Amino acid sequence: MTTQLAGHLLVDCLLAQGVTHAFGVPGESYLAVLDGLHARRDQIKFITCRQEGGAAFMAEAHGKLTGRPGVCMVTRGPGATNASIGVHTAFQDSTPMLLLVGDVASDCRDREAFQEVDYASFFGPSTKGFAKRVERIDDADRIPEYVARAFATAMNGRPGPVVLVLPEDMLTRMTAARPLPRVAAVQAWSDPASLLALREMLLKAERPFVIAGGGGWTPQAAQALQRFAENWQLPVGNAFRFQDTFDNHHRQYAGDVGIGLNPKLAARIKASDLIIAVGPRLGEMTTGNYTLLQAPRPTQQLVHIHASAEELNRVYQADLAINATMNAAAFSLEGLAAPVEVRWEAWTASANEDYLANLQPQKLPGDIDMPAIVGLLQQHLPVDAVLTNGAGNFASWVHRFFKHHGLAKGHKTQLAPTVGAMGYGVPAGIAAAITTGRVAFTIAGDGDFLMNGQELATAVQHGAKSIIVLLNNGMYGTIRMHQEREYPQHESGSRLNNPDFAALARAYGYAGVRITRTAEFEAELLAALARPEGTVIEVTLDPEVITTRGTLSAITQNALAKAP
Fold this sequence. Notes:
- By secondary structure, the chain is of the alpha/beta class.
- Helices cover 38% and strands 16% of the residues.
- It is built from 21 helices and 20 strands.
- Strands 3-2-4-5-7-6 form a 6-stranded parallel sheet, sandwiched between helices. The protein has a 6-stranded parallel sheet with strand order 11-10-9-12-13-14, with helices on both faces.
């Protein structure tokens, strides 16, 4: 019987699961896997990153785009702990992901060997926020079993990350084991009685509202959700940073339910008598710090549909809880027979009118008109472009003003961390370019960019092109905003002394330009779309322009007026 290195078998198992890319930083603890990647380099591409946090973000972005686990490979200790930010993101964002960690040899285990970490304690389910499952493979013959289980665990129920720990001596053993077949996600279907109950609740409702989002969506599911909404004339809002779940151009779209929420949308959700939440876990950001829906028992009737039974009734006691995956749930909802007329047509129409009115910007100071810049993005980016961002007030410009066609049109177009991780946007954009070949656009802040800007070197090395608009206001803007609101005129730690971003981009191999006026932007965007390499467009933004609705000085003055 033919045998091979366990490290080579591991790569074969990844190939059997349909893996085309692995993102990581090489380490001596998994050299046998790297050799397996070399042997199969025409089938699977290893994307060499510059820091494990960036690699993990790329793997998470890949998982969001494909619906199958994005793979990240790191070495023990510092490599694994650096990658933990991506694991946490995958957990809170409900993204399938697999982190492979090269570990100390078995004969050194439990001695606090060089870079040794207890990964079950660090990543384990007991942490309530990292991995769904953590396992160590001590037997090379069982690699196929562990890999297949990891993929199943990452995709089934609420999608999320799995960690597999690989002792370096195990990876160098010879094995005759062979990969197991490709694992598919299991579909959980709504039970007929619950669907009948949901229909009866709809028939009795006066002001229903749908909130869609979370992980596990496909274009087919999004299309079925749209048909359900159309059949019943329901207004639909997308959950925080899942703005591509329902088409923003649709006449029944009501807006995104997240940070910087349209005040009229917030009032509408509170006034609703029936909330149908399809997919989101109804976390703090989507529920406005648990105020749009009161926890644990909302004033509105609540139907919560989620892929994980454990998530249902965990925070909110729903009037009707349905355990179903998104494909199954959406197709079941589409099949609910609607009446000829509904009593909330005007309610739905006014929800869309409120959304469209919210696209009209407030007048803000400075030479940069950010709503106009987002309008140029809307005009010139392809409809299937992938938009990415990290965390910061800078993201609110695209969140409020950009309209996603989204999944119903066949493509996922938004990669944004619901976990609120800074530094996500740049590596996510690079991963999107590598994974899809589509136009990848990133909006970043100055502080956000500097957390993972080194991954521009990764993009250049692997022939990936992204376009980055970098808003430079010389501070951690979100923190400064909160400081002025809570401790006005007491700035502490939020000021930034920045490099020449355009020159830095050029040093990495990107084009780098700087603009100071809105009129300069369109030509630079068109040039960025046309050139073969990536581009950083640095936009000098007035520090006063701190949100889409107001200025930093106004926040300060309001806080001072309230002070005792």
